[in-house]
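Cross-check.
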Amino acid sequence: MTALVERTKPVIRISDLHIAYRTANAVVHAVNGVDLEVAPGRITAVVGESGSGKSTLALAIMGLLPGEARIDSGRVEFQGADLTALPEKDWHEIRGRQIGLIPQDPTVSLDPVQPVGALVAEVLRIHGLAHGKQARVQAIELLAEAGLPEPDIRARQYPHELSGGMRQRVLIAMAMAGRPRLLVADEPTSALDVTVQRRILDHLQRVVSSTGVGIVLITHDLAVAAERSDNVVVMSNGRVVESGPTAEVLGNPTDSYTQQLIRDSTISITDRRARSVGGGEPSNPAEDRAIPLVEVGALVKKFQIRGAGIVRRPVRTAVDDVSFVIPCGRTLGLVGESGSGKTTIARLVLGLERPGSGFVHISGQDVTALRGAKLRQLRRRIQLVYQNPYASLNPRFSVEELLIEPLRNFGIGDKQRRAETVRTSLDSVALSAATAQRKISELSGGQRQRVAIARALTVDPELLVCDEPVSALDVTVQRQILDLLLSLQQSRQLSYLFISHDLGVIRYVSDDVAVLQRGTIVESGPAEQVFTSPGHTYTQELLAAVPGAREYSALVTTHKETTPWT
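Predicted model, tokenized:
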């Protein structure tokens, strides 16, 4: 009887939790009266847009709230203890051992001066689970469980030598090292491609089934919530607006906010042209293709893998005989798994890496042959929008300083003209003039990405290279940023090289698609052709791996004729 009670008793119970951030100028109530339970062997998804309180809730469970945050009232009960009253010394036995955390951003969560295998082994040593050689061996096993390819080699590499998806898998390995009873996963797959995402989520579900661990899954991806969670909690402005079994909440939502989240979800995006921003007719594809802006031919790039031996290091071919064309005013979507070569291709196009062979032509000019001042001037025509604006933008600068910096670097305009460019750029990305005086830390994720786009536009480029520009954003903000990019493309005749692991996003923004597998383009063509009639088995596997496509579509379709919001 006792064992049965333990299996049914919630592993964590949150009751009427209130959390506020106190600054010199204001008090922000981030969590307002939240109730939540997670049973052993169950997954509860917490969804909502940026600023809804999801991550604050996760930090409260882990006892990691920042100094300016305070729990005003409520309880967080774990194994009979109220965590809100727990002294810091007692957290050492719980955090990492009994409650594991998978943070969202591996860039700021991993020690850059230690190999990733040592980081995983450190967790085992801290909690007395393994030592010496045994810790190193178990660390490799944990990396393999988390889906990292060639884990014995990767264990000797540093975080900066791995792709974003690989770094995220290292965090998952670290979180699972202690075999915790509760796992708090804060956007654990937002940076992963669909096939790796599926493997990671499959692994987490196997852990749930075999060990009875409970999972609090913080996610902006409603498809992941639909496919993987047993229960879902929808948050808005710090409050729970709707909660219950996943099929009921997502299949028959009663709150208007939940309905809006479902409408905005990228899983429902099927045709970029049918949703064209601005309402105009698309230009003639035949005419567009006659004016190539970017021509890439037979690109090859190889890297030596560090940490695999001093005398002889293995060579990895990151890009292998890649060719494509991006016409003026068009978008090429580049899709593939982590480590497939997407970002390396972007760096080659930008002139930040030199190919072993092949060429990159921008308006007929060979990027690979340029040096010094000529290469610098070419880079004014090509700008990069990074995946993580918080990591790529100087946090000490105001937004105005961030936008003026590229103008100053290229010697564009005087003080008056630069100030006018700042106003125009902010207006073009739908940010108010008052934003110019704020810092990045004072902005939401969507606002930061708008600033990153505005910064890229200040020098009036012809090509934007967008490297996972919406992967960390919630579905509502994703749609806003994608529509913004499409609108800017129409008004400025911009060309895009758009990199994403999200197939819904790629289909929405792209005219043409190139599918990468292990550094090679295995399929390419018009977006609709590739998505509706994929010819390569790898493309078919990517489409089949889209999380929640079948479950999510079924939930929405069930109520399509009876609920006006669909």
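The two ends are 46 Å apart (CA to CA). The longest helix spans residues 194-211. Passed to J.P. for a second look.
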